[in-house]
Amino acid sequence: MIGNPFAGSDLFADRRRVAALVFGVLALAVVPFTTTAYVTEIVFTGLVFVMLGVSWNLLAGYAGQISLGHAAFFGIGAYVAAWLTTPTRAGLPEAIQTPVLLALVGGGLVAALVALAVGPIMFRLTGHYFAIGTLALAAIIQLVLLDQRQFSGGSSGYFIQGGIGEDLMFLVAVAATVGMVASTYLIVNSRLGLGMRAIHGGEGAASSLGVNPLKYKMYAFVISSFMAGLTGAIYAMFTLYVNPESTLNVVWMIDTLVVVILGGMGTMLGPIVGAALFLVLDNGLRAVAGEFATTIEGLLIILFMIYAPSGLYGLIKDRYLGGEESETAEPEAEGA
């Protein structure tokens, strides 16, 4: 399931691939104006999964840190955006009310700050313990918000006012998706990405080369959390409703994990391909198989993990593209 951890990417080096990506972005941009609200909502959900997949893939696929608490940062971003745009509903001073776009950035920044605060504690854990620790963090944040009804709305949820409309928020989601993919590409192919991939290959070996594992884990954790928080904020401002039971639900984490596994972990295009496949499976099977859709999805995912561990993108790359994505040399020593 995990791509080559030392793989960089020449995703934007091929002009035909760049042209196809540009066409895809333009096609996405006209979706709200040429299709129904139902289709727009499905495509928006796909964009959310791409953003969550890209952010989680940076931490797990490139830095090798399997976190199960991504839903926590998604939920934090959603609630911060809700509080900043509709503060009086939570009893907060009206003076903190901010425009939507600033609220989106605020959601991402607060999520990143939480990751910065808890990261040194979380990274005292390794492997499965780190995964369980992040899952516990998400559960704790969800319980706190459920308990603090005056801030979260409790099980009734929190209704947001002052949105900019679904069409504009959809375009914001498209722009954010492009920005996250491009940012991840630049990070992965930079000295920073080299350090992340070095600790993925083995912390002991990386340390012997002069790489500080904690430093690069923290970079990956904070950047990934910022992206997840921004995604949550965009989701909140599109739906204009957040609820601790649904917005911080572990299902978001499971779906993100499935998207990345289906598409190809540790690859640039994997989360994009995985999100598209996941939406087709989820919506197509529900129409055809009804209540058995989830069971069939589970079986298909198991088959993918057994027979296509590099994901659909890895399968396509190997069969039809001849493994065009570059395989960079192993990390060189660097001062940390």
TrEMBL record:
It is found in: Cell membrane. The keyword Metal-binding does not apply. It is a multi-pass membrane protein. Keywords: Cell membrane, Membrane, Plasmid, Transmembrane, Transmembrane helix. GO terms for molecular function: branched-chain amino acid transmembrane transporter activity. The keyword Nucleotide-binding does not apply. GO terms for cellular component: plasma membrane. InterPro entries: ABC_transp_permease, LivM-like. CDD domains: TM_PBP1_LivM_like. The chain crosses the membrane at residues 18-36, 42-59, 66-84, 96-117, 129-148, 168-188, 218-238, 250-280, 292-316. PANTHER family: HIGH-AFFINITY BRANCHED-CHAIN AMINO ACID TRANSPORT PROTEIN BRAE, HIGH-AFFINITY BRANCHED-CHAIN AMINO ACID TRANSPORT SYSTEM PERMEASE. This is Branched-chain amino acid ABC transporter permease. It comes from Halorarum halophilum.
